Each structure stands twice: as C-alpha cells, then as structure tokens.
Amino acid sequence: MAKIKHNNFIDTVDEVLSGAKNVGVLHLYAEDKFLTGRTIQIKGKEMYHFGTTGYLGLEQDDRIKEAAIQAIRDYGTQFPLSKSYISHPLYSELESKIEEMYGIPPIITKNSTLGHLAIIPTLLRDEDGVIMDHQVHWSVQNACQLLKLRGIPVEMIRHNNLNMLEEKIKQLSSKCEKIWYMADGVYSMFGDYAPISELIELTKKYSQLHLYFDDVHGMSWIGKNGTGFVFDSIKELPENIVVVGTLSKTFGASGATLLCKNQKLRDKIKNFGGPLTFSAQLEPASVAAAIASASIHLSSEITIRQKELADKIGYFNQLLSQGNLPIISKNDSPVFFLGMGTPISSYNFVHRLFNEGFFLNLGIYPAVPIKNTGIRITLSSHNQKQDIHELAEAMKYHYPKALEETNNSDEKVRKAFGLSLDDALHIEKQTYDEVTIEEKNTIEDIDKNEWNKFMGKNNIFDWEGLVYLEKAFKNSVDKYNNWEFFYYTIKDKKGKILLITFGTYGLWKDDMLATESVSKQLEEIRKINPLHLTSKVISLGCLFTEGRHCYINQEEELAEKAMKLLLDKLEEKYNDLKADMLVLRDFEEKNTWDKVIQEQGYFKINMPESCVYKAEKWQNYEDFSKVLSSRSRKHFNKEIIPFEKYYNIKIKESLSDEEMDVAYKLYENVKDNNYAINTFQYAKSVFEKMNSCPNWEFILLHLNSVENSPLVGVMFCYKNQNHTYVPELIGMDYKWAKEFNLYRQLLFQTIKRANELNFPQIDFGVSASFEKRKVGAKIIPKVAYVQARDNYTMEVMNTIQNDYKSIS
C-alpha cells in the first residue's frame, strides 16, 4: 500500500502559536528606553511586569551592571577563542566563586541548552539508558535525541508518575548498566517540583538509578548560597546525582553550571563535551556579571533577598486563596499558573489584564496541553506588595468575566486540570434557549427518513448502515472493538434541524495516525502487551467510517450556537466517561468552524486524505479512459486492462462459510502488511454480519491462470441508497499481487461495479491516494480537531519517530 500523508507536529505548533500571535498575546516587543524590572511598556502602555524569570531582580543590580561594563572596557566585547585552548582572564575567578558556593568544582557552559548538549552525550555510555519526565525541559529532551544514534534506549513517563518510573526502571534494568532519570527541579510552567525525596528513595531501591536535574528555575531564590531547589532538598551532592544550574534568569548574568561529584567525569566532559570544545566561550561582560552575582550569593545578602521574595510569594498565595482561583500548583515557588482551560478564555483574560496594566505570560500548547491553556504569573523582587495586591484583585475580578464572555466555566476549568470542584465559582454560562439538543444511544430511536435526509448518502452511515455498525460493534465480545454509539440532534424552537451527528466511544491505538515506522515498533511490544499505548477515545463517527460525520445547516442564524452546544455536550461526555481523548473528524481542510473549534481547546491535525471518485456513467473502457488524465490513461491501458483477463470476477451478495474463511484470511494479510492507518484488527463476526445486511456485497477475484482458480482478492463493498458505493475493506493474497497487479485490478473492478449499478460516487476511503488518483479519484484534504488530557502520547510518538530516524 502506498504511504499516507501524516500530520507534521511543527505545523500543529505553528498553527496554535500563530493564533496566539494574531490576537496580540505572543511575540510582543518591549518599548522602554530603559528597564527597571517593575514595569514594562508594550504598545505604548506601561504595565506592571509579572512575567520575568529573574526572580530576585539581580539583572538590575548596579554592582552587576558595573562589573559587566568594566569587563568590556578591560577585555572587549568578546574573547573569540575556544576554552579548550585558553579561557579569558576572568574565568578562573568565576569558577572559584561557584565552587565556593557549592563546595564542588563546576563546569561553566555558554547556556543551559548548550550545556545539556555538551553534558548528556558525554555523561551516558552506550550501555546506559534514559527515562525522561515528559515535562522535562525541551533542551534536555533535545540533547537526549542524540543518544539514539548510539542505540541508547530513551523512554518517557507521565509527569511525576513514580509508579510508571519504577516500571520503566524494571524494564531497563536487565539491559542497562546505569539508568538516568531526567527531570526539572522546578518546572517552568506550573511551578511544581520534582519529588526529590521519593526519587532518592528509588535510587536506594535500585542501585542502577541515577538522577539528572535541570534546576534553572530553582536557582538563587532558595537554598544556601542560592544554590537552588535541588541542593536545598539533598543538602549534599551524591555520586549518582548530576545538577545543571544557571547563571542567567535569577542569577542575573549569563551561562550555566554543571555540578557533579565525580572528578573524572567532570574532566571527561570538560575535555570533550561538544559545545564546550567547539563553541565560543562566555563574553567577558557575562563572566564579570556572574562573578559579581556570585559574590552576592556568597554574602548574607542572599538570605535577605530570598526572605523578601518568600514574603511576597506568601502574600500572593494568601490573596489568591481568598478568591478561590484555580492555581494549579500551590507552593512556595515564584511561579504561579492560573488555569483557564481554553485558548480563547486565556486570550480574553490576558487582554483584560493588559488593559488593567499587568503583563502576564500566556501558557499554551505545546508547553502545556491545549485544553490546559492558562496564565503563567511570576513574582520577582521588583514587584511591590501594592502591585501584587492590585494584581490579585484584578485576577479575581476578571477571571469569571473572561470565562463568562467565552462560554466557559470554573467547573470546566477545574475538570480540565483535575482539580477539586468543591470551591468552584458559579459563573453564568451561555444559554441555549433558542436551541435544544436530543441524545439517543441507538439509530433505531431516530426516524429513518429524517436521518437519511441529512446524513444519508454519506459513506456507510445512512440509517441502514448504522444498524449494521451497531450490530457489528455495539456490545461486542471483542474488547478491542467494542463501541458505544451516541447520536445528537439539535433543533430550533420550531423543530427545524440545525445539526445532526453521531459518534462513538471506544479504544484507539495512540499511533493510529503515526507513521508506519512508529506503528511497526509498537506492534512488536503489543505482541506481549496488546494495550500498550492505547486510549479511550470519544470521536465523531467511528473507526469504520470516514467522511462528513456532522451535518450543520450553515445558512441558519443559529448555526454557531448549535455548534457550540455540540462542543459543550461532547466535553460533558468526555469528562463523564473520563476518556483520554476527544476527536472531531473529518472536516474539510478549509471549513467554517475552524476558529470556533480551536478556540474551545482543540488542536488541529491533518488527517489522511480522502479519496472520492465521481463520474458520469460510461458505456465502455474507452469512455472511462476519457475522464482520466493522459498519464493516468497510459497507466490504465498498460497496468489494468491487460491484466483483467487473468481474473475470474464474481459479485456476490453473501459468502459461504468456506468463502468467508478465505476472504477473512485475505483481509488479515492486508491488515498485517499495512500500518498506514493502524487500528485493531476486526473480528471475523464483523464480516459475517455483512452477509445478513442486504446493502453489502463482495467483489471476488479468482486467478484463472492458476490451477483451482484460488480466491486472491476481495473488496467488501457497501451500497448506500443508490448513491454512494463504498469499498470499505480489502483482502489480498500478496503472493500474486505484484505479478498480476492485483490491487489496481481491485480498484478498477470496484469502479466498474459502481458504474453497472449507476452509483454516481465511490468513497474510496483513505491511504494509497496515489494509486486511487490514477483511476480518477479526487483527493480531498481533511483535518481533525483533538483534545487530550496531556501531551504525553504525542511526545512519546515523536520520541519513537526520532528513534526510528536515528537508526534508519
């Protein structure tokens, strides 16, 4: 089968961030002539600055500024030479001061990103393994990708999930000498912590386990000498822990530090740690600034600064608790995250606070899941208590306003983040007095004529088709293909249908739309654990269908309200069933509802292209070939017509038990050889039920040039209201496929049969679009909209894909 076009992760990220940029909350420019740290000017408006990561405000300290200025006067703007040859005169003083802070000689790197690239590939040996927290900083994850080139296993766990971590340790223990767990000390979005004490207990239980912490957001504001959150937790660095800190952010300068106990390892990293060897060293001004900052860290002043900031953090926590706002991680870090749920609510809130004179950071996908969009607020020493009080009051006032204005609720936000509903605020939601919604759980409860009027002629989901699908998949003994069905009809007050749709709740493979290379790797694991990387999914339509699963009367004034009501109902079902994912499919690439859906917390992905054949009735092969392009006509005359004579072609309304056995085995052949759309294999009963449904028929191809004329190909076809012919599934004997152009012949015989029945349309489905285009099918780009509980699955898929690329 030809490969399908899969979604590009970068395209999804670009779409989300471009949307935020277009509404004016990302990619902004400060306009100040000089900066104080307390305020910042954007678009001509001066705002209180609650978005810095310089938590102690040292970047504005006059002693640090003067040190940097003097270093430029003394040594120039840079020292353009690798440190492997010689370090400029200030480096040794900086290293001495950092060693005095930590009690351990440091390695100084240009920044933490380059530091990870220098350290991680040198730190890990080929016999080691890695487990990453899926929220560990991108720079750590990026550096770990280099390890795959050497065959080092790189695994991932859900955020702070110690049970999952322990399982991964057990899996790697027999094949790895050391197992490195990579985490942040303080996580940059939610401000929550790594469970340091629990992780240390795990290192005692598993001697192979070593810990690698990126603690750049834990620096300076906590710990003796401002050495950070991790050092404050462990007190003394053991052999099996490595910590990367920063000289930027709170430290007020530039650069990063590596701290490890093993002198031999430090020497090895310093001798050949990629960017340490081949990148420029820190500029003299940065080193001098870091020296000045280190002097402050080594004085009693640092404790005073830490306490002053801690007082402000405590004050802000107290104010926030009075407003019952959904702060995601309540602790004593200077990072706060206010959950808003949907992007549109977050945009609204940010704009409201901008107008009140407060600059806050938007937290959006991929830094957080799309449905966990929110606002990151950071406190610094620059903020005064009056500023903090005014911010808290503005947040309490505008939070419910933003939710109400964007048809959101505090309850929905708390559900999205898994928070208690005990303190949920009552917020007036958008009313739907003009429209009503009905939910049914079987097609038999819906009027046949009414359903077919709006949804008939589409794929296999006319009324009769859904009767078949329910019989095949509802209450199925096949636990992998046991689906719940639901149907929504939305009407206006006069009873006029505005929207009608159906959906299912069932089990999906997380790699269903991943590349074939990813699915092949995962299927090896599923031989032992069939449910590995699978999710419970609520979806419009079902895995057996494709096409327009949702009818919306776009001409009606209430159409948008109907769509929003549908999204509300789907989200209720999503939360009630505790599903892992919610998928709206298959919308055309350019559709009316794109903005509305994405603003409600969905991200858009490209679906496999849909292939639809439409043509006037033709009388002979010459007439048929006239609708083809000149290139496709040559293909038809060379690759299809000459091979038809080798086949004995039969059309049957039902199959005997013997024929069904062979046909099912041919289907299994295709399923085992095609991972383009990776779903669970359908049970034989799904095909047997086709025999009792008059809308199904079977195109059978016997090879008449071979003894006993074996059945080598089958199309399982559905006839929808004399309008749409649907070759839903295919079976082939690959032994003969290439020599006799079996697949192409099956495609043509499907077209031939639809022509005989006077069907004006064939839904050829997805995959193999190149081959289908050759026989006249039109290729239609499709998209889906997805909500997920977290980004874990997507990041795992990306990791596996990168793993495949590194070894291929």
Automatic annotation (TrEMBL):
<dbReference type="InterPro" id="IPR004839">
    <property type="entry name" value="Aminotransferase_I/II_large"/>
</dbReference>
<dbReference type="Pfam" id="PF00155">
    <property type="entry name" value="Aminotran_1_2"/>
</dbReference>
<keyword id="KW-0808">Transferase</keyword>
<dbReference type="InterPro" id="IPR015424">
    <property type="entry name" value="PyrdxlP-dep_Trfase"/>
</dbReference>
<dbReference type="GO" id="GO:0030170">
    <property type="term" value="F:pyridoxal phosphate binding"/>
</dbReference>
<dbReference type="InterPro" id="IPR015421">
    <property type="entry name" value="PyrdxlP-dep_Trfase_major"/>
</dbReference>
<dbReference type="InterPro" id="IPR050087">
    <property type="entry name" value="AON_synthase_class-II"/>
</dbReference>
<feature type="coiled-coil region">
    <location>
        <begin position="553"/>
        <end position="587"/>
    </location>
</feature>
<keyword id="KW-0175">Coiled coil</keyword>
<protein>
    <recommendedName>
        <fullName>Aminotransferase class I/classII large domain-containing protein</fullName>
    </recommendedName>
</protein>
<dbReference type="InterPro" id="IPR016181">
    <property type="entry name" value="Acyl_CoA_acyltransferase"/>
</dbReference>
<feature type="domain" description="Aminotransferase class I/classII large">
    <location>
        <begin position="50"/>
        <end position="394"/>
    </location>
</feature>
<dbReference type="InterPro" id="IPR015422">
    <property type="entry name" value="PyrdxlP-dep_Trfase_small"/>
</dbReference>
<dbReference type="GO" id="GO:0016740">
    <property type="term" value="F:transferase activity"/>
</dbReference>
